[in-house]
Design a protein that fits this description.
mainly alpha, single chain, 2 domains
């Protein structure tokens, strides 16, 4: 079996996207055919795919809160880092659990994406609030 490898020129983003697309297609093929092989109902594989699509939106904004949290620790502002961390781990998920309960099971999947979106907004607010002090330290 031939293994997939990264393109020879790592700067070629199009080749990387093609490889990622291939991997996603292979995963979908394996998921659908393994469900058929074990006599799993098609509705279960469909609901799994639906949940993964909702859950994947979280990764669009997830990086921002981690980056700002690390940055705040690096410039010795642990209070802001703790605020982002606690909000991401506890406050936002609990608030969204109640706010999204009318969505049923989809609300649980939207919870993770919403938590990361709210954490990104909080992170941007922290950066904007501390902007003057950060710029003053650079000068």
């Amino acid at each position: 079996m031939r293994s997939l490898s990264l393109p020879d020129h790592p700067g070629n983003a199009i080749c990387l996207l093609i490889y990622v697309h291939r991997i996603c297609c292979i995963r979908r093929y394996v998921l659908l055919h393994s469900c058929t092989a074990c006599h799993m109902p098609h509705s279960l594989s469909h609901s799994t795919e639906h949940a993964l699509r909702i859950f994947s939106f979280a990764f669009v904004t997830r990086w921002l809160s981690f980056a700002v949290q690390s940055f705040m620790l690096a410039i010795e502002k642990p209070g802001y880092a703790a605020l982002i961390s606690i909000s991401t781990a506890f406050i936002f998920p609990v608030l969204l659990l109640f706010a999204l309960q009318s969505f049923g099971l989809d609300g649980i999947w939207f919870n993770f994406a919403g938590t990361n979106a709210l954490a990104a907004v909080l992170s941007i607010a922290v950066i904007v609030k501390e902007r003057k002090e950060i710029m003053k330290a650079d000068a």
